[in-house]
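Incident review: delayed structure delivery

Summary: a single-chain prediction request sat in the queue longer than the usual turnaround. Root cause was a stuck worker, restarted by the on-call engineer. No data loss occurred. The affected request and its eventual output are reproduced below so the record is complete for anyone auditing the incident later.

Affected input:
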Amino acid sequence: MEKTMRMTSAEAAKLLRKLQEELDNVLLMEEQSREFSAALGEDVESVRPAYDYGEVQRQIQGLEEQIRRVKHSISAFNLVQEVPGFEGMTIDQMLVYIPQLSRRKAKLALMQQRLPKQRERAGYGGGSQIIDYSYANYDMETVRADYEKAAEELSRAQTALDLVNTTAQLEIIL
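Output delivered after worker restart:
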């Protein structure tokens, strides 16, 4: 019998983890009990673990179906649910945007940490009297300002996504 549940994306993610843990447990129990060893002369029935192939397969299939339904519901929700404050950006777009912002922030962090002119490390075993310098080919202040913008935008995006995930509800049919 199917039942419809309404929950937030965060709650659906917890349900998904719970179902996956249940499936992992059933698979582990199957692995441990589908085959067994008995010593020569030992009463095989006294050491046979409880195992019902048909029932275990029904449990596995039922859990896998529930996992598919929850994942589908989350995916469908992510495709249409907009994130407030981000001009029509949906959750699935935000899940791409946040890593992009993270990479941009990391790159800008490295760029702003270097000196405008810095001495290169000596290579090739030393001994050379030639000193090489590398120069930043960009405006340090512009990079610092862009870093701050990227950090603020990343924080704002993460907060907005967290808010949607903990407040907007989706429908799951189990």
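Verification: The CA atoms of residues 23 and 63 lie 6 Å apart.
Action items: add queue-age alerting; document worker restart procedure.
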